């Protein structure tokens, strides 16, 4: 099968998200004039080591946010955001925070999550997340499409839960990161393998 996206795929559901998978979930927390906000984004990744940088992209809009969503609007307003890592234990809370709520709704409360303060930025984070990345916005890029925005940030502080550290390494098997697949599907990291690079 071959198709051009502009012509449509002819399938019951768009396969694009299933092709580009698994994708890490950036559970983005922000603080703005409207209050605290929390929402998951599966268009998310780390993009540089030195200095450490990440990005997340929002691809839809709300009527009360002038062509975008709460996370982008508040990151633009405050200049900061926090990325919270989604563990298996937090999967239902992550899903609960994904609802389309009016601006000013506190998804921490909806999902029954405890907040903690960030250290380097004025922003809340998910207290029980196995890791959190405090970020300062470096740029917001409007992508082709009506409501497509990519938010880039430099990581200024990193939280690691002590029980996720084993022998000096961040051990993902201790908490089972949740990744996004296509459709309504997710994956849990339960096993791993290592390979040496040819030049190691």
UniProtKB/TrEMBL annotation:
UniProt xrefs under Pfam families: Flavin_Reduct
Residue stretches making up the Flavin reductase like domain: 20-172
SMART domains with a match to the protein in the record: Flavin_Reduct (SM00903)
MF GO annotations: FMN binding; oxidoreductase activity, acting on the CH-NH group of donors, NAD or NADP as acceptor
Superkingdom of the source species: Bacteria
Protein name: Flavin reductase like domain protein
Source organism: Jannaschia rubra
